[in-house]
C-alpha cells in the first residue's frame, strides 16, 4: 500500500484511533508526526478499550513498528506510563516502538507556565488540555527547547534544565503564579526517565528512510484536526503544532514525494472541545442529545464536547489544505434517532456569501451558517457492515455530504469496534484497499 496519512478534518476526536487501527492491517509501520499526550485515540477491541495518547495505534497489532517522530512533544512520564499499561495488557512494546532523538521534551515548567497563562486575566483562554504542549512548542521554536538527544546526555541535560528553570521561574513570577520549579529535582527525575527511554531512542528519520528503501509502507497517524492546526486552524483557538497533512513531512523527516495518499476522518456531525468558534454548534437539547448518544466526553480530560451539525465549508477547507483523496465518516449511528438532520452548506457574513474560511476567529464567531435540512432515517445503523444494509436515507445523507464536500467517502463507521465498519463499494480507495494483501502479523 502506498504510504498514507490519516488526518482529522474537523476539531479533533473524529475517530482517527479507530481508523488507524483498522487500516494498519495493510501497513508495516505506524508513525505519529506531531502533538503530544493532548491526543486521546480510542481503539476498542472486543471488550477491551485502549486510549492511546503518544504511542501510535499500530502498536496494538502484532509485528507492526510504531514511531514517535521529531514533530511530537514528549512527556517522558506519560510515555512510560502508557508503555506500562500496554505491557500490562499483554502488548509487547520493547523492540517495536522507536522515539525520535529530535523530539522535544515536556518539562514541569511547561505545565506551570501553561497553567499561569490560562488563568491570567486579560489573556485569551484557549481551554487547553493542560499538558504543557503549547509552552514546549514555544521553546522549540525559540531554540531553547530540550530534545530527547539532550535528555540522554547528563551534562547537556543539567545545563539546559538549569537555564530553562531560571528563565521559567522568572516568567512565572511575572505572571503572578504561586508555583516554582527546582532545577536539581527536575534533573534528577529526568535523568532517571532518560535511562528508561534510552533503548527506544533512534534517529527515526533515518530508520524510516531505511525501512521505506526496503519496500515497507508507513501509515502516518495525525493527532488533533485540521481546524486545530497552528497555521490553518481557528487561530488562536488551536493547538501548537502542524496537525494538517503537511506536518507529516516535517514531523518525521519524510520527503513529500514519499506521501502516497491522504485520508480524512470526519464525524457524521461535528464536535469541538475547549474554547473558540464553532459555527454549527447546536446549543440546548439537540446538542445535549448528540453528546449523550455519542458519549461525547473528552478521552483525555473528560470534558463534555460541544456538539453540532456537519459543516460542509469546514470539510471543503480540510479537503483543500490536506489534499484529501478520500473521506471516512464516523459515528453515523449517533444520528439514527433524528427525524431531520441539518447540514451547513455555506457561511454568510454581513449579507454576503463567504467564499473562503475567515482568518479571524472573531469573524468566524459572527458568520451565519446556511443550512439545508435532510430527512433522517430513524432506524438503527449500529454495527452495520455492508453498504447494502444501510437505509436509503442514510445512503442519501452520505451521498449528499460527499457531493457537497467534493470528496469520495470510502469508509463508514457504525460503531466503535474494528468490525463495525462498512466500505463504500464504488470508492477508489475501497478498490485500492481490496487489491492489497493484509501484511504479515495483522
Ligand atoms: P480520535 O481522537 O480522533 O482518535 O477520536 P476519539 O477516540 O477521541 O473519539 C472517538 C470516539 O468515538 C471514541 O470513543 C470511539 O470509541 C468512538 N467511536 C469511533 N467510531 C465510532 C462509531 O462509528 N460509532 C460510535 N458510536 N462510536 C464510535
Ligand atoms: P485528538 O488527537 C480534540 C484542543 C484542546 C484545546 C486546544 C489546545 O484526540 O483528536 P492543547 O492542549 O493542545 O494546547 O489545547 O486543542 N485539543 C484537542 N481537541 N482532540 C484532540 O486530540 C485535542 N488536542 C488538543 O481542547 O481546545
Ligand atoms: Mg481524541
What structural category arises from helix and sheet content? alpha/beta
N-to-C terminal Cα separation, in Å?
Answer: 14 Å
Placed side by side, the strands forming the largest sheet appear as 9-7-5-2-10-1-11-15-19-20
Bound molecules: guanosine-5'-diphosphate, 6-O-phosphoryl inosine monophosphate, magnesium ion
Tell me which oligomeric state these chains represent: single chain
Low-confidence stretches: none
Average pLDDT figure: 97
Number of strands: 20
> Percent of residues in beta strands?
15-25%
Largest beta sheet, briefly? Answer: 10 strands, mixed
What's the Cα radius of gyration?
A: 22 Å
Shape type: globular
H/I helix tally: 14
Helix content: 25-40%
Q: What brief labels describe this structure?
A:
binds guanosine-5'-diphosphate; binds magnesium ion; 4-stranded mixed beta sheet; alpha/beta; binds 6-O-phosphoryl inosine monophosphate; 442 residues
Notes on the structure:
The protein has 442 residues and is of the alpha/beta class. It is 33% helix and 19% strand. It has 14 helices and 20 strands. The strands form five sheets. Strands 9-7-5-2-10-1-11-15-19-20 form a ten-stranded mixed β-sheet, with helices on both faces. Strands 14, 16, 17 and 18 form a four-stranded mixed β-sheet that branches. α3 crosses α4. The protein is globular. It starts with a strand and ends in a 7-residue tail after the last helix. The structure holds guanosine-5'-diphosphate (GDP), 6-O-phosphoryl inosine monophosphate (IMO) and magnesium ion (MG). Magnesium ion is lined by residues 12-13, 39-41, 299.
Amino acid at each position: 500500500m502506498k504510504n498514507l496519512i490519516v488526518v482529522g478534518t474537523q476539531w479533533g476526536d473524529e475517530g482517527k484511533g479507530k481508523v488507524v487501527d483498522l487500516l494498519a492491517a495493510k501497513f508495516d509501520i505506524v508513525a505519529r508526526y506531531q502533538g503530544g499526550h493532548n491526543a486521546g485515540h480510542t481503539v476498542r477491541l472486543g471488550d477491551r478499550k485502549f486510549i492511546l495518547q503518544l504511542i501510535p495505534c499500530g502498536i496494538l497489532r502484532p509485528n507492526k513498528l510504531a514511531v514517535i517522530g521529531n514533530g511530537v512533544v514528549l512527556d517522558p512520564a506519560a510515555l512510560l506510563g502508557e508503555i506500562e499499561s500496554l505491557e500490562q495488557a499483554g502488548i509487547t512494546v520493547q523492540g517495536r516502538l522507536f522515539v525520535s532523538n529530535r523530539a522535544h521534551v515536556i518539562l514541569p515548567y511547561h505545565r506551570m507556565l501553561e497553567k499561569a497563562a490560562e488563568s491570567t486575566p486579560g489573556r485569551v483562554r484557549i481551554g487547553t488540555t493542560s499538558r504543557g504542549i503549547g509552552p514546549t512548542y514555544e521553546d522549540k521554536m525559540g531554540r531553547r527547547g530540550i530534545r530527547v538527544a539532550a535528555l540522554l546526555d547528563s551534562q547537556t541535560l543539567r545545563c539546559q534544565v538549569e537555564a530553562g528553570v531560571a528563565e521559567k521561574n522568572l516568567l512565572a513570577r511575572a505572571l503572578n503564579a504561586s508555583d516554582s520549579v527546582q532545577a536539581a529535582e527536575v534533573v534528577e527525575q529526568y535523568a532517571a526517565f532518560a535511562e528508561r527511554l534510552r533503548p527506544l531512542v533512534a534517529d527515526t528519520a533515518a530508520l524510516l528512510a531505511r525501512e521505506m528503501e526496503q519496500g515497507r509502507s508507513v501509515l502516518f497517524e495525525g493527532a488533533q484536526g485540521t481546524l486545530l492546526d497552528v497555521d490553518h486552524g481557528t487561530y488562536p483557538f488551536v493547538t501548537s503544532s502542524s496537525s494538517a497533512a503537511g506536518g507529516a513531512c516535517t514531523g518525521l523527516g519524510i520527503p513529500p514525494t514519499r506521501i502516497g495518499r491522504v485520508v480524512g476522518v470526519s464525524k457524521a456531525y461535528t464536535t469541538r472541545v475547549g474554547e473558540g468558534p464553532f459555527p454549527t454548534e447546536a446549543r440546548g437539547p439537540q446538542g445535549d442529545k448528540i453528546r449523550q448518544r455519542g458519549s461525547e466526553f473528552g478521552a483525555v480530560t473528560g470534558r463534555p464536547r460541544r456538539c453540532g451539525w456537519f459543516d460542509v465549508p469546514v470539510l471543503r477547507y480540510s479537503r483543500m489544505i490536506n489534499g484529501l483523496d478520500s473521506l471516512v465518516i464516523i459515528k453515523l449511528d449517533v444520528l439514527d434517532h433524528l427525524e431531520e438532520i441539518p447540514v451547513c452548506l455555506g457561511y454568510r457574513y454581513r449579507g454576503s456569501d463567504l467564499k473562503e474560511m475567515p482568518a479571524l476567529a472573531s469573524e468566524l464567531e459572527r458568520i451565519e451558517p446556511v443550512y439545508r435540512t435532510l430527512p433522517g432515517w430513524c432506524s438503527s445503523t449500529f454495527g452495520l457492515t455492508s453498504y447494502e444494509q444501510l437505509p436509503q436515507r442514510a445512503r442519501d445523507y452520505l451521498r449528499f455530504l460527499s457531493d457537497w464536500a467534493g470528496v469520495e467517502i470510502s469508509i463508514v463507521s457504525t460503531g466503535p469496534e474494528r468490525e463495525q465498519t462498512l466500505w463504500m463499494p464504488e470508492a477508489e480507495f475501497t478498490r485500492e484497499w481490496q487489491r492489497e494483501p493484509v501484511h504479515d502479523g495483522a
